[in-house]
Structures are given as C-alpha cells and as structure tokens.
Specification:
Distance between the termini: 57 Å
Number of helices: 3
Largest sheet: 4 strands, antiparallel
CATH topology of the domain at 30-85 and 117-162: Immunoglobulin-like
CATH superfamily of the domain at 30-85 and 117-162: Immunoglobulins
Oligomer: single chain
Number of strands: 12
Structural class: alpha+beta
CATH class of the domain at 30-85 and 117-162: Mainly Beta
Order of helices and strands: HHEEEEEEEEEEHEE
C-alpha cells in the first residue's frame, strides 16, 4: 500500500507540468507589433482577419478589388493606450483547524506598498474579421486592404489563401 501511494505521488506531480506546457504552446500572440498591420486568411472558414496597431486610432478599413469595389470592414477597438502596473508584494495570514473529518479556515492578505508603473503602451489595437468575397480564392492577388489611421491612409496586399 505504501509503495502504491509513493508511486502515485511520484507520477502525479508531472501532470500539471505537462498540462501547462501543452496549453502554453497553444497560446500564440495574435497581436501585431507596434505600428503595424497584420492580415491573415483562414482557408477553412473563408475568413480574412485584420489586426491594426498604431498610436492613432484606426478610423476605418476596407477590402478593395481590382474593379475598385470596396468592402467595408467592421473594425473593433480591442485595446487602447494604457499604463502597465506591477503588483506590490503582500503578506497573507491564515487560520485553520480540523478535527473529526471536518476542516475550515480563513485568511487575509495585505499589500506591502502600492502598485508602480512598469511601462506605458501608447498603441490602439483594432481587429476585423470578415468573410472573403466569393471570387477571393481565384483573384486574391488583385485585392488589397486600405486602413485609415488619423490623417493617413495605408494600403497593404491582401493575404494569400495558401
């Protein structure tokens, strides 16, 4: 019995490590670097995904085909300029007791100081996700994306479906 319990505890500690590494490897950073535009195409869903990061808030975006037909893209602001703070260290106190298969406890934490700024992010991040036009797979190279940022307009090539 003691050998089985020891084996259980020896193998049980590895599962949280395996689970966290597997979940961590699935998490990618979909956000673009500062002052950039990222466009991707999801072939399985026939969806174009657009991310815009800039110090100026994006006013609008559109997909334009070779004939000049424009498809407005619904931009959603995901994040705005903000200050990042670090949490102060804290001290926790707890009391607990048990007896006759009953247990209980209570605790409280107290911060030691106040948060302090560790960085400033001056970027607006906006996103749009939209269905590709019916002829996009055949004529994607004739499309381009236009993004209006403040007083400037930026154009980028449409994402490849491959």
């Amino acid at each position: 019995m003691a050998k089985a319990a020891a084996q259980f505890w020896r193998t049980t500690w590895i599962w949280p490590l395996v689970l966290s590494s597997v979940l961590g490897s699935c998490a990618g950073d979909p956000l673009p670097p500062p002052n950039s535009i990222r466009a991707t195409f999801e072939r399985s869903a026939q969806i174009i995904q657009l991310y815009v990061s800039n110090a100026q808030i994006p006013r609008g975006a559109r997909l334009v085909d070779a004939n000049g037909d424009q498809y407005p893209l619904p931009l959603t602001v995901v994040s705005g300029p903000h200050v990042n703070y670090s949490t102060p260290p804290s001290v926790g106190l707890g009391l607990g007791g048990f007896g006759w298969n009953v247990g209980g406890g209570a605790g409280a934490g107290f911060p030691l100081g106040s948060p302090h700024p560790v960085g400033v992010d001056d970027q607006f991040i906006a996103s749009a996700r939209f269905g590709a036009p019916a002829d996009y797979l055949q004529h994607w190279s004739q499309y381009h994306l236009v993004v209006d940022l403040g007083s400037q307009t930026l154009e980028i090539a449409a994402p490849s479906p491959t």
